[in-house]
Amino acid sequence: MSLSPDVVKKSVNIDSTKAYFDFSSMLTDYIKNYYTNQYEDIIFLCIGSDRSTGDSLGPLIGYKLEKHLSQYTHIKILGTLDRPVHAKNLEETIQHIYSSYNNPFVIAIDACLGKMDRVGCVTVNHGPLKPGTGVNKELPSVGDIHITGIVNIGGYMQYMVLQSTRLNLVMKMADTISDAIKFTLWDLNKKMFFSRYIN
Question: How far is residue 151's CA from residue 169's CA, in Å, rounded to a whole number?
Answer without folding.
Answer: 7
